[in-house]
Structures are given as C-alpha cells and as structure tokens.
Write a structure and sequence with these properties.
The complex is a heterodimer of chains A (440) and B (778). Chain A is 37% helix and 15% strand. Chain A has 440 residues and is an alpha/beta fold. The two termini of chain A are 40 Å apart. Mean pLDDT of chain B is 88; it is low at 1-30 and 633-641. The chains are: A alpha/beta (440), B alpha+beta (778). At the A-B interface, helix 6, strand 7, helix 8, helix 9 and strand 11 of A face helix 6, helix 9, helix 10, helix 11 and helix 21 of B.
Chain lengths: 440, 778
C-alpha cells in the first residue's frame, strides 16, 4: 500500500534528492506557521541492537566523567560531544532465573522489554511490551508509520533457535504485546518501497487514487469479518484474531493519515545495485535517516544481527561465525576478531550519525532532535553476562549533557533508562518493567 | 516374549512374532514381561537408590511408579525414563550399567506397559491454536485456487519457527507489516488473475503537451495547448505499460513550414528514434501520425523529436523564415495484439452466467457476480461461504460497477477482499469451540479436510476432498485413509518433500549458510542442488514405497554436474538433478547429504557437536537437553589449527558429568561424520592430520564412519518414532503433549516389524485422535 500512496505524493511534489542535502523537511514546511517563532522538530528515537555482546575491555572507556573514547568507539570520535556512554546497567529479565541456558533468546526477548521471556518452544510465547512499542502507542499516531522494525538477518530459516526457546525471541526485539513480536523488514528495497513508493515506478495519480479506494473497501470488509469472528472463538484463537483485527485497524489508520502527502525521495544508488552484508547496515541507516527526515516515522529499532547471530564477516577477515567466536574463552586471537566486528558495527553507526548531523531541520541538525540508543543486551558474550551492559546514547534529542561516561551502581535496571525515554517523549508513565526510577 | 535389544543388531533376529499383532495387554499373559515384575525389579536395582526415599534426587521419586492402573502422569514418567535409559544417560556414568538381558526385559515390560496405558487412558486430542497460512502455504494456496504462480518469497517477513517448523499456530503472528504485505499481494494477484484486455478497445494513454518535458530546455516551450519545438529537440513523457506487446504510438502534430523541406519528426522511445516521418501539415491541417511497434512492460519514456530545424532571418517573407514543430499530444495505445485469456481468469469466471447468456448485457451485476464469488470464496475459505458473506462480496462489486468500473474489475476487488479476509489467511476450524462436556469432538468435515490438505499438499482441498467433507464422509476412518492414499499419489504431495522434509532436515538454513569463501569457493552453485537433492530423495522413498529406513541408507541419490563433482561421482547425463547410484556406502541417506553436513557446520570448520545434536534431534528422537550454565563453546583458534586438538578439546565434555551425559553420545555420532568437511565434501585429512571417524557410543560400542553408524540408527525404532513425531508436529501444528507422546509411542509399536513406508507413517498420523478431533472448551 505504501507504494501506492507514495506514488501519489510523487505526482504532487518535486522529487527530492535522497542522497544529498537537498532534502526538504516536510514537518517544518507544513507545520510551521509563517513568521512564527521557529518551532523545533519532533523527537525521534532509534534503537540499534548489536548481537552477542561486546568485547568489554575494548568497549568501556577508561575513566568516568569527560568522555575519552575506547578502541571500539573510536570510529565515533567526530561525534564525541554528542555521545553518552552508560555503564553498570542490568537487564535482570535476561538472566536464567532457573530456566537454564538460552541466554541468546533471552538477550533478544528481554532487550527492550526488560521482561523475563517465557521458556517455550512456541506454544505460548511471552515476553513483554517493548519500550519502542509503548512509545508508539502514545506518539506513533502522528506519523504514517507508528514505528519501524528493521534488521540485517531474516528469521532463522531452520531448526529451533536457542536451547528450547522459540525463534521469536531471537529474531525480534520489538514486542507490540507480551505475546506478539513485531517482525522486522530485512529487505532494503522492500523498506524503501514501503516508505517512499516503488523505486522503479513513475506516478499515475488517477490509478493511485483508485488503488487507495480499493484498499479501503477491502480493509473495511476484512475488519468487519474479524469482528464477527472475534465473538465466536476461544481465548487462544481470539488472541490471534485480535492481532489481525488490530493490524487491519492500524493499516486503515495509516491509509487515512496518508492523505496529507509527504515529500518524495529518490532511491539511493545502492538500492538499485543490490548490496551484500558489507553494505547493508549503511543502506538501512540511510533509509532510516530519510524516514526520520521526512517524518514517515519517529520510532525505529534496527537489529545489526539476530540475537545469537552466527554471521561470518569475511570482508573483515573474520569468516568465523560471530556467535561461535563470541565464546572466545579469553583467547586473544578471538577477542581481537570480536573487537573487529564490534568496531565495524560502531563505524556503521558513525555513518548514521553523520547523516543525521548533515540533515537540517529548522536550522538545526536532525541529530539534535534524535535519541539514538546503541547497545548490546549481553556484556561479554563468552560469559553471557546480563549486567554491566554496553550502552551508548547519541544525539541531542534527550537534552542530556552529552560527551560523558557515566557509571551507575551495580544492578541499576536498564528499564530506568527507558523511563527516561518515556519522560523525554512526553509519555505520562513513570515506570517500566522492573524500573526503580528514572536514569537521566 | 522377547524384544530386541537397543544397540544390538543381532536382536532383530530374535524378534518374536507376537509383537506383530498389536498392543498386548500388560499382565494378561503369564509369559509376557510385566512392568510390575521386570520393570519394578529394574527400577529397584538401578534407579531408586537415588530417585527414591524421602529426598529423591532431582525431585524424581521412582519407587512409587506403577502402571496398573496407568495414569497419564505415570505413563509420561515411564516414557521419559525409557528415553534416558536407552540413551544411556541413566543410570549415570560410574554406576553399574544394566546387563543386556536385563535391559531387554525391562524394555519389553516397559513397552508393553506403555502400549497398554495408551489403550486404557482416555484419548485427549487437545486443541490447536488457529493457524495462519505460512509463506509457503500461501504461495501453494494461491496456485491451486487460481491456477496462478505467485511466489511471496522474501516479500513477506519470515515466519518464526517453533519446534523446527513454521506452521505452528501459536507462533504464527500477525502484524501491521504483514497485513500490509498481504494487501499488496492480494492487489498484485488480482491484477494478474483478472484479464481486462479487450483487443477491440485497447487502453489509450494520452500525454497532453502541457505535461511533457522538452529537452534540451532551450529547444522549445509549451504555449497554449501545444509544445513548440523551435530548434532540434524532443518532447517526451512517461507511461507505464502493463506487459510486453504491440502498441500504437500516436502524435497530433503540425509544422510551421519554412525552407525547401517539410518539417520532419521522429517517434522516440527511451531516448532512441524508432521512426522518422515528414510532417507537411500546418496549423490548418493538423495531422495524427502513428507507428506500431513492440514495447516492453514497465515505465517507458515516449516522445517526438524535431529533426530538421531551419532558420533564415534574412528570408524576405517573415512567414517563411522559421521552421518549427508543434505537438498537441502524444498517445500510447495498446497493447493491440490479442493474447489468450490466462488460465487464472478462466478459472475465476468459470461460473459467470454471461458466457451462456444470449445477451450478457441484460444480466444484472448481482446475477453474474454471485455465482462467481460463491465459488471463489467457498474454495478460498475451504468451506461453503454463507449467503451473507457472498452478499457482502457482491456488494463490493456492485459499488465498483456503480463507480464506472467493469464487472471484471469489481470481481478483482472482491478477489482482493477474499484474499485479505481472516477466513482465507487463517485456518479457522468452525464449530470446534462450541463443544461442551468432556468427550472429544470430531472436527467439522471441512476443517478435517483442510488439515489433511495442508498436511499433504500445503494447500487447499481439491474438489474431491471438499465433496467428501461436505457429505460428512471423512469421519469414517477407512474413507479418510483412502483419501490420504489418493492425495499422496497426487503431484501436489510434492509439498511434503518441499515443505515438510526440507524443514525436518533443517535445510532452509542452506539459503543463509555462508561457509568461508576462501576455504569453500563455488558453494553458491551448490545451494539449490543440495536442497533439491534432499527433496528428491524424500520424494523417491515416498513414491516408490520404499522402506522409511532408506532415508538413512539409500544406495542412490540425486545430483547434477556440480553436485556430482562435489561428491566425486562421474558427471551424470542430462540436465538438472538425476538419479545416481551410490555403490560404496560413503553417501546415501540424509546423513550423507551435503546440505545436511553443511548446515551443521561452522563457516570455517565442521562441528561434530552440531552434527551429533542434529542426529539426536532429527533421527533418534532424543534431542539433547541444553548445555548446563557456564558451558563454553570450543576454542576456535586452537580447533582450526589442528584436527587432533578438536578431539582433545572435546575430551573436556567427558570430564564433567553434567556435560558427559549428553556429549558422550552426541560427540561419537558427530565424529563418525568427520569424513565430510564443512560443505559435505569427502576429505581424508583435516588441517594436515588424517581424519579420524572413530567414536565410542555410551554402551561401549565402537563406530567408525557413516556406514557403521547406520546400524545404530536403525535400532529401537527410534527413527520411526522421531519421524512420526516430526510429522505430528507438522500436521497438527503443535508439539506433542504428554498424551500425544504416549499415543505416538503406541502407534509406532503397532507398525509392522518389517518394512514400514512413509505412507504408513502418514496414514498413522492422519488417523490419530489429535489429528481428527478436538477437545471441547478451553
């Protein structure tokens, strides 16, 4: 549907260049009254998940206070004043609590939910509502897409994912409800089409209007059918049909909101060429920056790999699987390779921050209106530690004093950080999962 | 009655005839081993010292375990106990191992008791959470609904797996993202299924001059209703063409004539001049020029170029000084070549009364749409659509026609609604939720037919099956079984290989497995053949009614040139994968499949642990318990350095009792496959060391290589149980619960002792209570 709608927009507005600085910012363009005091753009939150933990000795800055970047984070030096490294945070829900192994499933399932995922092969998956989805419930309605879920790796294609845990926990970090993960988009092309329209097609306003009308009537009928069914089924089935019902309503809502057209965006060159693992993160980051800049969404999560990812990074000279390698047994050669992966991921993040810094909105860089959370839900992958996690904030969106390294008392819940997000994004809720207060 | 001993091949020969007859009531025959005697004696000797008394280990007390009369709890406990004893997990290492004869007697007693327990305990078919169509099922369903190939592929988000399969109701979730993809897919399918072309009235795409682009910019300008080119240049616009075919390019043009020649223009497509023509006409005699040509589908740029600019400012007659070309509009008409109406359209409109009507234009929209949509919705939703439902769909068509659309377009819209409906996307089982009381209810006939067709075909029921369902005939077991046989013989049963077998063998992972390209160049070309090889092997065992165990030790496989080279076999004749003989036993069966050997490897090396785990999980019905906390994976750097150190580092597994209980078996199974490298190629050395394929099973028996392993894999009917369990999970859409596990155990015990075919297993699973019935209430 998105492509239908975007093509419509294409016909009305000049094509903007996605790759350069020529991008106009629709939010201000349409919302700012003439001659009024310059309004600031809305806040955005991007969560970037790095799998399998980090090489902690290369992650943690040597001292607290003013930030001196560690080897892993060194590629971010140019953004140092916009970074905040947080040490000492814990996601207790990720720990075994008697459930035995499966730390990678719990790594994914607990990251943004801070819940203790239920150990199940699939019959009754349960984690918790993730922070991005809670925020989406409150602020997502303002944009065409309440939230975006992106990832490099498709869902595991075979087998059971981790020690008796259903794959849903490893493959998703966003959870709309405690039992419903939000699957992620793993194709940059499909993502572009969804956000901005089919990159290969020109517009035909009439045909698009017709397609929109058709879509509306089809969804209308679907919603009615679901409603009828809901009253006739048992609780387990009702949950599934309720997911369906909610999805229909959300897509209908988007269809209605789309009537206000946004700007069109030219597809980045890389999208046409098709890309390998090496180029994929940068391409996703580029599309995410464009989605923020054009106000298609204000909330996004992005998985640089599934929890427990076993991708090999041959182009870094690390052909071994990432997960296998993360069980390094403190062997230097393996640690060095883990460090290489971690650093490369940080470089990709750097590219994202560059983009957000270059895109201007109301006379300030978009980065100033964005909170970027970059973190792993394990500390050392070898030990499967769920405490003292590697957590980095970037951007000026939180209004916090950046350029620092803060250490919190042991066992400070990660959920406290999420409460800070709730505050900053204006959600009237002062607790989240196992939070004990607000962090920043 | 003597029963065969696990791990001892010779026991097969000792098998006594009475086993063939089916379940034997425990204790009914004085000669038969009874759990109360042999079973209890075994427990007392080997188990209850730890698992008994006031503080039993692991909270498991076995001294009170009794099966006369059986309870579900005691049977489940015994089933678990049996697994651990057979796996030699228990009694633990260091305790005296049971003597073979003693073990045999215990198992005979146990098996009889379990079969008796299954017969005695009330069946409990359980409940299945409503299942959304998986990606694979969606494609198949559309194909059979509309005679249309639609491959959702990567455009739908991946379905999360549970218990190794992607069709588990509880895990198949729905999100706005997915719903949007379903709506997009429905629109695309409708566009392809509904044929709107009418060669007598081809669509006309007109581009008025006002909307055209002039290049170069200074070559002209749009004035009034025309685009004037005053020097050589092009006016052009873009159109989107639905298909490759013949089109008419038309342009309404005239020249402002000057100089010796008339104005000259060319039709331009995608920047290329395709036809030049003179334009002697003037503003008083505007002409339409046209040219017929073949154009490809998609977005095309079309235009008119002015070719012969002429400008003489000193010409005495001011009207003769300047030659220009003026374009009023451009049109692309077509496609104008007639194409046969696609099968999907014919199928969709098969019930259209217009085909037989004397004057179709007299028919009301409702009269035509109703039979079409009743047929469509009933097939798509896998049960008769109600009058109300059809009425709502017809209303959609009527509204669309009222807006000026053709009936066909309206039906296309209703088709979209049918495909996005929850009745299509979910396999609803109507009526099942309305039962009361304690007894299991037969599934509604259509629901059972749907379970059957998605089990065997990954698609919807065909007409024959739907008819039986409508008549309520499937409740009869013999009819059901005859139907299973018919369906297995149908080409659609290929889905069992492509969907079930590929998932069972974990081969979907092949698409994402990336071995180190430096070590394994050329892997890309093998991905597809590796998967196809597995499908064809399963297919051959199914279709040729071979013994299921040939899945473990077939003397043939399928290979194309690339795969044959990979295996060191002579290049087979013919295209694609063809059947090849495997005389030497180095390959053959699922454990010799390069695909299986690859997905159980790491990118840089083999993993005996992963391979061993794969065998336990997918062949032996004994998935290992997860490793204890703190267990680390191997030291990669040391392992890659030398093959010998791989073995040495794995000795660690034996040092810790909690590791050893599983690893002793897992590692030995994995070592036996060490002759195959990380992409399944035969090797003689690894890292400079000769490969060592020896291993010791928990009972002390030595295995060495794949051939010797095969014997062990056939024992104790473990493979049959494993495969039945997998089929059950796939067919019913949930993991076996304790009651199901007991039923599955008894089911395998009842199978013939000699040859068992895949058809036998499928029939057995389709006959299970859990497949045919549903427990009432929730």
């Amino acid at each position: 549907m998105a492509q239908v709608l975007r093509r419509l927009a294409l016909s009305r507005r000049a094509l903007l260049r996605g790759g350069g600085a020529l991008l106009a910012l629709p939010w201000l363009e349409s919302m700012r009254p003439a001659l009024a005091a310059p309004a600031r753009g809305p806040l955005r939150l991007a969560v970037v998940f790095a799998p399998n933990g980090q090489r902690m000795d290369a992650w943690t800055p040597a001292s607290e206070g003013a930030l001196a970047l560690s080897p892993t984070l060194e590629p971010l030096e140019r953004h140092r004043k916009r970074l905040l490294v947080l040490s000492g945070l814990t996601i207790d829900g990720g720990r075994a609590h008697g459930d035995g192994p499966g730390d990678h499933a719990r790594e994914g399932g607990s990251f943004l939910t801070c819940a203790h995922p239920r150990k199940t092969g699939g019959a009754d998956i349960k984690a918790g509502v993730s922070i991005d989805q809670l925020l989406a419930q409150h602020v997502g309605g303002a944009t065409a897409f309440p939230s975006l879920e992106l990832g490099i790796e498709p869902g595991a294609a075979g087998g059971v994912c981790d020690s008796g845990y259903a794959c849903a926990y490893s493959n998703n970090i966003s959870w709309r409800t405690e039992s419903q993960p939000m699957p992620k988009e793993t194709s940059p092309r499909a993502l572009f089409a969804r956000l901005f329209g089919d990159p290969d097609e020109a517009a035909d306003a009439q045909a698009l209007e017709r397609a929109r009308a058709s879509r509306r009537s089809v969804l209308d009928l679907a919603r009615e059918e679901a409603k009828r069914l809901l009253s006739r089924v048992g609780p387990a089935d009702r949950r599934k049909l309720d997911e369906y019902f909610t999805a229909v309503r959300e897509v209908e809502g988007r269809l209605a909101r789309e009537q206000a057209s946004g700007p069109a965006v030219a597809p980045p060159e890389a999208l046409k060429a098709g890309v390998g693992l090496r180029e994929r993160p940068a391409l996703f980051f580029e599309l995410l920056a464009l989605a923020f800049a054009t106000d298609r969404t204000r909330l996004a999560t992005f998985m640089l790999g599934n929890a427990g990812s076993n991708i090999g990074y041959g182009f870094l000279g690390v052909p071994e699987g990432h997960h296998d390698l993360s069980h390094h047994g403190n062997e230097e050669a393996k640690l060095e390779k883990i460090g290489r992966i971690n650093r490369w991921h940080a470089e990709q993040l750097g590219g994202f921050l560059d983009r957000l810094a270059a895109l201007q909105e109301g006379g300030e860089p978009l980065l100033e209106r964005t909170i970027v959370l970059y973190a792993s839900a394990l500390a050392d992958g070898n030990a499967h530690a769920h405490h003292d996690l590697p957590v980095l904030l970037a951007g000026g969106g939180g209004g916090w004093t950046m350029g620092r390294h803060l250490r919190f008392p042991r066992e400070t819940p990660m959920a406290n950080l999420y409460v800070s997000f709730l505050e900053r994004l204006g959600v009237p809720q002062r607790s989240f999962a196992d939070s004990t207060g607000t962090l920043l | 009655m003597r029963r065969r001993l696990p791990w001892l091949l010779l026991a097969c020969a000792l098998l006594a005839a009475p086993c063939l007859g089916g379940p034997q009531p425990a204790g009914g025959d004085a000669a038969a081993p009874s759990f109360a005697v042999e079973g209890k004696a075994f427990l007392a000797r080997h188990c209850t010292a730890c698992h008994g008394g006031t503080a039993p280990e692991a909270g498991l007390a076995l001294d009170g375990l009794a099966l006369e009369p059986p309870t579900l709890r005691s049977a489940a406990q015994l089933l678990d106990l049996r697994k651990r004893v057979v796996a030699r997990e228990m009694p633990p290492l260091g305790s005296p191992a049971p003597e073979p004869a003693e073990l045999a007697a215990f198992l005979a007693a146990t098996d009889a008791a379990l079969v008796a327990a299954d017969a005695a305990l009330a069946p409990d078919p359980g409940r299945v959470t409503v299942r959304r169509l998986s990606r694979f099922e969606y494609g198949r369903t559309v194909k059979h609904l509309l005679d249309l190939d639609y491959e959702p592929g990567a455009s739908f988000p991946a379905d999360d797996l549970s218990y190794g399969f992607d069709n588990i109701g509880a895990s198949l979730s729905m999100s706005p993202l997915l719903l949007e993809k379903y709506a997009d897919a429905a629109a695309e399918i409708a566009a392809r299924a509904v044929w709107l072309e009418d060669p007598s009235r081809p669509p006309v795409r007109r581009l008025e001059a006002e909307g055209l682009e002039i290049a170069p910019e200074r070559a002209g300008a749009v004035r009034g209703e025309g685009a004037g080119l005053h020097s050589n240049g092009t006016v052009s616009g873009t159109v989107r063409l639905p298909r490759e075919g013949e089109y008419l390019l038309r342009a309404r043009v005239f020249g402002q004539q000057a100089g010796p020649d008339p104005a000259r223009m060319a039709f331009v497509v995608d920047g290329r001049n395709v036809r030049s023509v003179d334009v002697p006409e003037t503003a008083e005699s505007i002409a339409v020029k046209e040219w017929r040509l073949v154009l490809g589908a998609g977005v095309r740029s079309v235009g008119v170029a002015f070719l012969n600019d002429w400008w003489r400012p000193d010409e005495p007659d001011p009207a003769r000084r300047d030659r220009n070309l003026v374009v009023d509009w451009l049109e692309v008409v077509g496609p104008v070549d007639a194409r046969p109406v696609p099968a999907a359209h014919q199928r969709l409109f098969a019930r259209d009364p217009a085909a037989k009507a004397k004057d179709p234009s007299k028919l009301a929209v409702k009269a035509r749409a109703e039979p079409i949509l009743k047929d469509l919705a009933s097939r798509a939703w896998r049960r008769p659509a109600t009058g109300e439902e059809v009425k709502r769909l017809v209303a959609l068509v009527e509204a669309e026609v009222a807006r000026g659309a053709r009936l066909e377009e309206g039906v296309g819209l209703a088709l979209q609604a049918v495909l996005v409906s929850p009745h299509f996307l979910f396999r609803l089982e109507p009526g099942a939720a309305t039962g009361a009381g304690g007894t299991p209810r037969d599934l509604d006939g259509h629901a059972l037919a749907t379970r059957l067709s998605y089990f065997l075909w990954s698609s919807l029921p065909d007409e024959a099956l739907a008819t039986l369902a409508a008549r309520g005939r499937l409740a009869d077991l013999a009819t059901l079984q005859a139907e299973v046989r018919r369906m297995l013989a149908d080409p659609r049963a290929r889905a069992l290989s492509e969907n079930f077998a590929v998932q069972w063998l974990e081969l979907r992972r092949l698409s994402t497995f990336v071995p180190d390209p430096a070590r394994h160049p050329g892997f890309e070309a093998l991905r597809e053949p590796m998967r196809q090889e597995a499908e064809l092997l399963f297919e051959a065992v199914l279709r040729e009614r071979r013994d299921v165990h040939e899945l473990l030790d077939a003397r043939f496989t399928f290979a194309d040139a690339a795969l044959a080279a990979h295996y060191g076999l002579p290049t087979p004749a013919g295209d694609g994968l063809v059947r090849v003989d495997l005389p030497d036993g180095q390959r053959g069966g699922v454990l010799g499949l390069a695909g299986v050997l690859a997905v159980t490897s790491n990118p840089t090396r083999t993993s005996p642990v992963k391979r061993g785990k794969w065998v336990l999980q997918n062949v032996l019905d004994a998935p290992p318990r997860p490793p204890p906390p703190g267990a680390d994976s191997l030291d990669e750097a040391r392992v890659t350095a030398s093959a010998r150190s791989l073995r040495e580092s794995m000795e660690v597994h034996r040092a810790r009792a909690d590791c050893a209980s599983c690893h002793v078996r897992m590692d030995a199974l994995g070592f036996a496959l060490e002759r195959y490298d990380a992409v399944g190629r035969v090797r003689t050395e690894d890292g400079g060391q000769p490969v060592d394929t020896r291993g010791t099973l928990p009972d002390g028996r030595e295995v060495d290589g794949l051939a010797s392993l095969r014997g062990a894999l056939r024992e104790d009917r473990a493979f049959l149980r494993c495969l039945c369990g997998k089929l059950f999970t796939f067919a019913v859409g949930r993991a076996p619960e304790p009651r199901d596990a007991l039923a599955l155990f008894a089911l395998v015990e009842r199978l013939p002792r000699e040859k068992v075919t895949l058809e036998d297993l499928v029939l057995a699973v389709a006959g299970m209570e859990a497949f045919r019935k549903r427990s009432p209430g929730e």
